[in-house]
Amino acid sequence: MGRKDKEDKGGSGFQLKVPKGTKDWDGRDMVIREKIFSTITEVFKRHGAVTIDTPVFEMKEILSGKYGEDSKLIYDLADQGGELCSLRYDLTVPFARWLAMNSSVQNIKRYHIAKVYRRDQPAMTKGRMREFYQCDFDIAGSYDSMIPDAEILRITTEIFEALGWKGRYTIKLNHRKILDGIFQVCGVPEEKLRTISSAVDKLDKSPWEEVRREMTEEKGLDGEVADRIGRYVVRKGSKDLLETLQQDAELTANESAKAGLADIELLFSYLETFDILEKISFDMSLARGLDYYTGLIYEVVTEGSAPSTSQSSKPKKQPNGGKAIQDGDDRSNDPSVGVGSVAAGGRYDNLVSMFSGKQQIPCVGISFGVERIFSITKSRLQAEQSSKPPRINDTDVFIMAFGGKGFDGLLPQRMGVAKTLWESGIKAEFLWKVKPKLPQQFKAAEANGVPFAVVLGEDELAKGTCKIKEMGLPEGHPEKEGVVVEMSKLVEEVKQRLQKWELEDGLQDMSITA
Amino acid sequence: MGRKDKEDKGGSGFQLKVPKGTKDWDGRDMVIREKIFSTITEVFKRHGAVTIDTPVFEMKEILSGKYGEDSKLIYDLADQGGELCSLRYDLTVPFARWLAMNSSVQNIKRYHIAKVYRRDQPAMTKGRMREFYQCDFDIAGSYDSMIPDAEILRITTEIFEALGWKGRYTIKLNHRKILDGIFQVCGVPEEKLRTISSAVDKLDKSPWEEVRREMTEEKGLDGEVADRIGRYVVRKGSKDLLETLQQDAELTANESAKAGLADIELLFSYLETFDILEKISFDMSLARGLDYYTGLIYEVVTEGSAPSTSQSSKPKKQPNGGKAIQDGDDRSNDPSVGVGSVAAGGRYDNLVSMFSGKQQIPCVGISFGVERIFSITKSRLQAEQSSKPPRINDTDVFIMAFGGKGFDGLLPQRMGVAKTLWESGIKAEFLWKVKPKLPQQFKAAEANGVPFAVVLGEDELAKGTCKIKEMGLPEGHPEKEGVVVEMSKLVEEVKQRLQKWELEDGLQDMSITA
User: Fold this and answer.
1) N or C: at which end does chain A have fewer Cβ atoms within 10 angstroms?
2) Given the DSSP bridges, would you call strands B280-283 and B169-175 parallel, antiparallel or unpaired?
3) pLDDT for A280-322, tens place per residue?
């Protein structure tokens, strides 16, 4: 789509721009985004999920009191008379509101891919957009312990495998009840549980010393208590760590920790059956900010999503030997830069009852950071496919005409062939000129990498034939100059070639997987 | 999804509802809507279209002065500091803004399916939602006359045929230059051209006498001038009408009318080549309200979209012998009721230059009223498929287990089979219980019309086998009790049956076409 004239002065004299923190999606970016969405959606559907769609704005009071300090980031609609409304801040609260309003729905697996809105100020510093996509999958309903939780983690791995991230991501996992148990055992006063928990949550970005200082100096925790916490939260592992914790008599004497450890043991057995245990890191430092989690919590990290606090617009080296993400002009606002995870979620059993006093619907879910996934996917594609011209649309056939002196352009004939191809479901275009020149037509086809041309000429038409030409064949190829086919067999001939081409070139050309 | 507890008092004491004029989409409605979107998108892509996505809100000044009187219906965001923004009112102005900002894009075929926002007050009376979907397709760029216009009409017919509306829709068509010529020839003063044009636009809802009264009494037009207009605007036809008008010496002496008639003549020749001329009604009464049209204008009407001014919530009889649309409780706010068209558009060659002084990009486009198309499609499906239980998700296989005394539920085995099926891309579910009862499992599968069950039993597993059972087979069918297959061949066996089932039942079950 070429260069953008950003912040242009338009014909009306005002600045021509999109609002701060928002962007237009077009060209190759749009193609990649659509492919990511369809890849993710396919996995959700494989597990029986359905989608629901809620309004982009909610009653203001629905959002009130759900986001703590971040409530100041909520966009309100102007009071133009009538109800007071706000743009949705996430997809979880609208889902809980929907569940509370539809009391006949006692269970559902739902996904929702949609934009959410946050007045983050300033957006650039935090590397965050004000309008951005979320992709949520949640399971609501009462089921036997840890089975839906295990399936969510299985779905998560299927999605990242389908996106071609094999071996390049880790699911960090912890349990709120274990964390609470640890804090209690270490001697954290009840009223400081949540605030100490959010300090621990910073361990992915800050060293223990800094977190300890926050706990003791800012939050007034006793230094010895902090040190005891420190001995727990630096640990990570798998079944080995689980066993170590289960042998910790002080910890297992705590009811909360004991229940959490039993959950993890059961979960690990399910994850082994699902063959995904090796993707998991049981990580005591994972705490997750949101208050509403009640059980298992998890976060997916990848080499490309490691945190960075630099605001430089120069290319950054990522840790872990990962590929550098090009942080050019148009990506200085990119949410993938400097943010720690590409997906996150957990179990929240009490949120629905905040809306619906009468009933409790246990939920577990995950939110995929599609903007970050997009950025990482795009950089990889740029690195891998630099030699191939990107296709923007899906056109399979470009219909052309040529002729000598007195050539009239064969427009009705081109239109007629287009009609025939469209009727058979073949994606076809022709140049919207009465008398186009042949090079013009080839240029239009090549500009978008259309794989086949159907070429019409007066002599051929008189004989009831035309030519099919595969674009971009090397010199010397026997079909370089095209193949003459009967007009009456055109559809069949085109379909055969398309099928072969798709198997050989098309799939890899359009694939977003590695 | 069952009954909704609308306007419930939630656990927090406030009214649990969505904002006025908005709705949640779920269940079967969501499935139908998604199918309509994918049907339409497929046709767009067949013609080489790409999609772009713009922010849901724009700078307030971008929308200012684009919608005339309707500007009062624009939703503003609250002034929370920073830029003043408004929710988009349609998809055309954001597209024109995007074109103006991306000056390297000199031509594009783009579609955009997204929600737009109008503070219509009150929504019920006008049968209009405040948040609703639009589906726009536009062609921008300089091409030879009437070729892109003809392709848009061809695309329109392909979409309605794909939706199963064959023979049940008409494309009304007119030309702004012919209308202007008629008004000039009849003696309408230059400054009254647009206001008289919008009076003519009401002829689809009001008789001529009423429109004549508006022209003369409200708009001060001379009675004789009005009568002369009356003789023109009641005419409709096809090539016959074109010929009649071309023989009208007074009309063809008018430059504007002459140019418009030449366009229509050329267009008709293209529509004949595209084999869609019989879908067209050349209708002198079609004027279209929006100011920005400069050439061809069109509107698609169907038996189900005829206008109705009644606000009754009882079932309505539609004219033209069409099926009645059930106007039940949940559809009293339905935009398909009492609205005249299911798609409309035209050529607008000057809109982009409103944003970008330096350049003019001619455009022609159409907007599909997807909410109306949804309502009509839904009523037809209800009438046609009442005996079939609607499927909400796409699950192909439900994995079950059964056993005698001491049965442990075979959960790891069910999980293992699920994993194997998922890995082959098969959509599969199992009941998230450690020890589910067999009837429970069958009920869960039947509730959603899952076509196949894979049944595990301890004895069969010991022999390395399991059973595949097609659901809903009649008594006496040889495979009623299921077929025993080797566990090692399960994927293959399931895929074979699924393929056969999809050909026989699946396609028609999931189809939205007639």
Assistant:
1) C
2) parallel
3) 999 999 998 777 899 999 999 987 554 443 333 333 333 333 3
Q: Closest partner residue to A55 among B22, B76, B150, by Cβ?
A: B22
Neighbour-count burial for A418-446, b at 16+ CB within 10 Å, e otherwise: bbbbbeeebbbbbbbbeebeeeebbebbe
Q: Sheet holding B428-430: strands in order across?
A: B428-430, B397-402, B452-457, B465-470, B483-486
B24 Cα to chain A: minimum distance (Å):
5
Verify whether the Cβ–Cβ distance B54 to A18 is below 8 Å.
yes
Closest partner residue to A427 (CB to CB) among B46, B269, B428 is B46
Q: Helix, strand, or coil here: A335? A: coil
Phi/psi of residue B383, nearest 5 degrees: -70, -35
In order, the DSSP letters of B345-393 are EEEESSHHHHH-TT----EEEEEE-HHHHHHHHHHHHHHHSTTSPPP-S
Q: How far is B427 from chain A (nearest CA, A)?
A: 4
Interface size, chain A vs chain B, as Cβ–Cβ contacts under 8 Å: 296
Residues of B in contact with A448 (CB under 8 A): 48
Pair B422, A153: CB distance under 8 Å: no
Structure tokens at A482: 């095209």
**CATH 3.30.930.10, domain B24-384, yes or no:** yes
Tokens 């995929």 appear where? A368
Which helix (H) or strand (E) segment is A117 a member of? Answer: strand A108-117
Q: ipTM of this predicted complex?
A: 0.85
* Long-range contacts at A60-65 (CB < 8 A, ≥ 24 apart): A60/A84, A60/A85, A60/A86, A61/B12, A61/B14, A62/A93, A62/A94, A62/A97, A62/A355, A62/B14, A62/B16, A63/A88, A63/A89, A63/A93, A65/B12
Domain with CATH 3.40.50.800 in chain B: 397-510
- Give the pLDDT band of residue B324 (cuts 50, 70, 90): very low
The Cα diameter of chain B in Å comes to 96
Question: Cis omega before residue A307 (within 30°)?
Answer: no
Is the Cβ–Cβ distance between B468 and B454 less than 8 Å? yes
Name which of B30, B102, B360, B456 to mutate to probe chain A: the one with the most chain A Cβ atoms within 10 A of its Cβ. B102
Mean pLDDT of A339-351: 87
Say if residues B298 and B153 touch (Cβ distance below 8 Å): yes
Domain A22-54+91-384 listed as CATH 3.30.930.10: yes
pLDDT digits (tens, 9 = 90+) for B412-445: 999 999 999 999 999 999 999 999 999 999 999 9
Among the CATH numbers 3.40.190.170, 3.40.50.800, 3.90.180.10, 3.40.50.300, which is that of A397-510? 3.40.50.800
Give the chain B residue nearest A56 (alpha carbons): B131
Q: CATH 3.30.930.10 in chain B: give the residue spans.
A: 24-384
Q: How far is B471 from chain A (nearest CA, A)?
A: 17
Task: Find the length of chain B.
Answer: 514
Show residues of chain A in contact with B59, CB under 8 Å: 14-15, 17-19
Sheet arrangement for strand B280-283: B50-51, B108-117, B131-140, B363-368, B343-348, B296-302, B169-175, B280-283, B236-237
CB contact burial A458-478 (16+ within 10 A = b; e otherwise): eebbeeebbbbbbeeeeeeee
Residue to test with chain B: of A74, A144, A364, most B Cβ within 10 A: A144
Location of each CATH 3.30.930.10 domain in chain A: 22-54+91-384
pLDDT over 50 at A514, yes or no: no
- At A405, is the secondary structure helix, strand, or coil? coil
How far is it, in rounded angstroms, from Cα A496 to Cα B438? 48
Segment A216-268, tens digit of pLDDT: 999 999 999 999 999 999 999 999 999 999 999 999 999 999 999 999 999 99
